[in-house]
Each structure stands twice: as structure tokens, then as C-alpha cells.
Write a structure and sequence with these properties.
This protein is α+β, with helices and mostly antiparallel strands. The protein is built from five helices and 13 strands. A hairpin with a 5-residue loop joins β3 and β4.
């Protein structure tokens, strides 16, 4: 695997609007695993495509923003956290007042109370302190969607989040976020989860390094997973469907590089482009050879919804970069393999799994 190359750009968190994000039922529990539960804004009209299927990239934005919020919202070190959670979010009867923690607040211009980013070392998992010791690079991500996500009778305007520590390895930290909506029976139902892994990177050498000793001593062995994530790399064949992408301003996040969700958006666009008849049998260097590459993937497959995707990140993309999205199948039904190439080098690999016929709603 290529060494990670995190961006050298640093976001100015004082400009981030997360402190005014409408989050309720915020609760921290230390046992059995370090966990934050809260109710967060969910999907909006902009989260759906023309067929009213939730955009995967929108799920990733919701996930990124809520994780950012949780990892920056200060906990009160003087308050003993709850030892055992009672469930998730609003359906578990958690009070809208904060349980087991207090917040550092300041008065906003409109008189409302806003908490401050000043001391992020005291946030969940002391992540601010971690980032003072090392950079972090997103290595793997696995999003798993349930059929409830595609059920139009399940309201998704607000969601309950359960954010847990997964595993602390020698050089990596794995976390798990689960999102719940109110089901048709009035009970909470899981609609998607994200298991993702970040690698500690030395700020001077820009190479992977060990997690800080204090972090390892405090959190190793306390996560809900027994091992770190491992996604096996795969080899790109000579014959693929290739879709060119120009990285746009709208793909860029506050760190100055393409947001992690952009890679999935490009892949989704490429898959739909592969469904167009005039894209299947071209003779150009970026077209397939010998007919359709995605033989078992149809519009009906896409309509059943994406069940899971796994992403491995190698390199970043910047605005103006030219990227090739290569797609193919490996003989497994309802699966698509993808690699993204920039200047002849693979920068990302993605494996997508769609629901089977018998798993349709």
C-alpha cells in the first residue's frame, strides 16, 4: 500500500459552523465502550437523486459533519461520565439535557449559548490532543446501508447517532458510527453505519507513525472491536469502463482537497454513465474493449439500492486534477469494483455491493 499523503492545509476550526448545529440528547458513556449518543439533523430534499434514492455522498456528508461535531464538543473532565447507556437517542428516553457531561459555552451574537472550540483536547476520545501529537489520514471506510434507508415511509429528517470507539492499533484508530431513524412501528431502526479507520501520521516525515503513547494507554482494549480493519487491495484488469473526471470546486472540503464523499460521487456518476448505450462500445483509450464491462449491473440493480461499499484511500485529489474512474466486475453478482487513477497512479479503490432481488423492499 502506498504511504498516505495527508494534506498540509489546516482548517481554521474557529470558522466552522458546527457549534450552532442543532444537536440534542447528547450523552457520553464510558462503559462498556467509550460512546457518544445524540440526535442530529438527518437527510434533506437535497440528499436524494432524481429517483428519490438517498445519495450515498449525502450520507457521508451527514456522517462527516456529525463526527466533526462530536470530536470537537468539549466534555467536562470534572464530571464522572455515565457508566452504562440506556439506548440510542430520542427513542430511548434520554433527556434533551446533557447527561454525564457539561459544556464550555459562550454567548453568540443573537444571545444564544454556543459552546467553544477553544479546548478540543477535552472532547470525545481527547481527539484534539491526538491531533496535536500527529496528523490523521483516512485509510479505510465501510458504509453499510439497510433496506430501511430506502423505505420512503421511514422518516429521516432527524437521526439518532451512536458513535463508538472500535479499536486502537499500533498505528491506527477504528471508530464506528451508527444512524437510526424512527421506524413505521415507532421504534428505532438502523438505516446505515460507517466503520472507518484512521492512521496516525508523523507531522514532520509525513509517514505513518505509532499512535501517541498516552492515547494507547488510555484507550487500547476499550473499543467494541477485537481487531483493526483490513481491506485487501485488488488488481485493476486491462479491460475496464473508464469515466474521466475533472475535480471541481464543489468537491473540495475545508482542508483544501477532495472530500472523502467526492470519490463515491464520482464512482456513482461513472456507473450511471456506464448504463448509457453510447458509453459501452467506444473505441477511445478510455473506453471498454469487447462489449459491456458491467454485464450483470442494470438500472434495476441500481434501483434496488446500494447495500455496502468499502473504500481504501491512498492519495488526495486537488481542484483541477484529472482523474480516471475505472469500473469492472469480478464475477460476483451485484458487485462492482472500482479504482481511481490520477497521473497513472491509483489513488483510491472501492468495492460496491448492491441489494439482491430477494432483498428488495
Amino acid at each position: 500500500m502506498a504511504s498516505p499523503t495527508p494534506t498540509t492545509r489546516t482548517a481554521k476550526t474557529s470558522k466552522a459552523p458546527m457549534e450552532s448545529m442543532h444537536v440534542t440528547n447528547f450523552r457520553y458513556t464510558a462503559s462498556p465502550h467509550p460512546t457518544v449518543e445524540c440526535t442530529v439533523p438527518g437527510l434533506s430534499h437535497e440528499s436524494y437523486d432524481k429517483d428519490w434514492i438517498p445519495r450515498t455522498s449525502s450520507l457521508m456528508w451527514v456522517d462527516a459533519l456529525t463526527r466533526y461535531y462530536v470530536l470537537h464538543r468539549p466534555l467536562d473532565d470534572q464530571t464522572e461520565p455515565s457508566k452504562q447507556g440506556d439506548g440510542v437517542g430520542s427513542s430511548s428516553g434520554i433527556s434533551s439535557q446533557v447527561a454525564g457531561l457539561s459544556l464550555q459555552t459562550e454567548t453568540g451574537s443573537a444571545g444564544q449559548k454556543l459552546w467553544s472550540y477553544e479546548d478540543t483536547t477535552r472532547a470525545f476520545l481527547n481527539w484534539g490532543q491526538f491531533l496535536k501529537n500527529a496528523h490523521s489520514f483516512g485509510q479505510y471506510s465501510e458504509l453499510t446501508m439497510t433496506k430501511a434507508l430506502y423505505d420512503r415511509e421511514v422518516s429521516k429528517w432527524t437521526l439518532d447517532l451512536r458513535f463508538r470507539l472500535g479499536f486502537v492499533g499500533a498505528c491506527s484508530v477504528t471508530k464506528i458510527c451508527e444512524y437510526f431513524a424512527r421506524g413505521k412501528d415507532g421504534k428505532n431502526v438502523l438505516i446505515w453505519s460507517n466503520k472507518y479507520q484512521q492512521v496516525a501520521v508523523d507531522k514532520k516525515t509525513r509517514q505513518p507513525t505509532r499512535v501517541p503513547t498516552w492515547f494507547k494507554d488510555k484507550y487500547q482494549g476499550k473499543g467494541c472491536l477485537s481487531q483493526a480493519m483490513v481491506l485487501r487491495p485488488f488488481k485493476k484488469p486491462e479491460v475496464t469502463f473508464c469515466h474521466p473526471i475533472l475535480v471541481q470546486y464543489s468537491d473540495i472540503d475545508e482542508y483544501g482537497h477532495a472530500n472523502w464523499s467526492a470519490y463515491i460521487k464520482w464512482t456513482t456518476d461513472a456507473i450511471h454513465a456506464a448504463m448509457l448505450p453510447d458509453k459501452q462500445n467506444g473505441n477511445g483509450s478510455c473506453q471498454t474493449k469487447g462489449g459491456r464491462v458491467l454485464r450483470s449491473i442494470t438500472k434495476e440493480t441500481l434501483g434496488r439500492g446500494l447495500h455496502k461499499f468499502q473504500v481504501t484511500y491512498f492519495r488526495e485529489c486537488l481542484e483541477g486534477d484529472h482523474v480516471e474512474v475505472h469500473l469492472w466486475e469480478d464475477g460476483q453478482p451485484n458487485q462492482v469494483l472500482c479504482c481511481l487513477v490520477k497521473s497513472g497512479e491509483e489513488i483510491c479503490q472501492i468495492k460496491l455491493f448492491y441489494f439482491d432481488d430477494d432483498e428488495s423492499l
